[in-house]
Q: What sequence folds into this?
């Protein structure tokens, strides 16, 4: 195997490693949330959407009966991130030894996963949970860290997207 071929293989494997970040985040989110659905609704979703502890902002509150549906929608949305990224990872693995254009094209599902994840964690959690429902004002430890965790995910997804999208592989002369 030539130096150029080894370099290309390592470069592609590193990109696949990056693409695993949104896949693992999304799939683990479902696994973590599904096993504790009832507790999550009671300790996270319901206090959040009913604005518990934020009586001055009750006009923003949603009915408590919406909590299970919003919580399910949340973890299904997270799981979609994982599935989309996993499809991209599988495509990248399938094209590992194929020409550069094939490998580049296989990254598109990872881009979509990163964009969807940014909407889920950025718009849904950071803005919705943090700013609309004021999770950061909550005394509930499960809610008060919502914006920091969401910001971490959005930042990770941004860097994965940016790196994979704007570092195109061409026929390198290494």
A:
């Amino acid at each position: 195997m030539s130096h150029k071929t080894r370099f290309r293989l390592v470069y592609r494997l590193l990109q696949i490693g990056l693409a695993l970040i949104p896949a693992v985040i999304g799939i683990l989110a479902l696994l973590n949330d599904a096993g504790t659905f009832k507790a999550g609704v009671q300790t996270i979703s319901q206090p959040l959407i009913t604005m518990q502890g934020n009586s001055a902002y009750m006009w923003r509150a949603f009915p408590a009966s919406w909590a299970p549906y919003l919580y399910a929608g949340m973890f299904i949305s997270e799981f979609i991130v994982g599935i989309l990224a996993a499809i991209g990872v599988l495509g990248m693995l399938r094209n590992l030894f194929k020409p550069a254009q094939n490998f580049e094209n296989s990254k598109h599902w990872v881009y979509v996963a990163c964009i969807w994840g940014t909407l889920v964690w950025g718009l849904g959690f950071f803005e919705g949970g943090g700013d609309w429902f004021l999770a950061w004002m909550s005394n509930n430890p499960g809610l008060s860290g919502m914006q920091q965790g969401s910001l971490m995910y959005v930042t990770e997804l941004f860097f994965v997207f940016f790196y994979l999208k704007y570092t195109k592989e061409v026929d390198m002369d290494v």
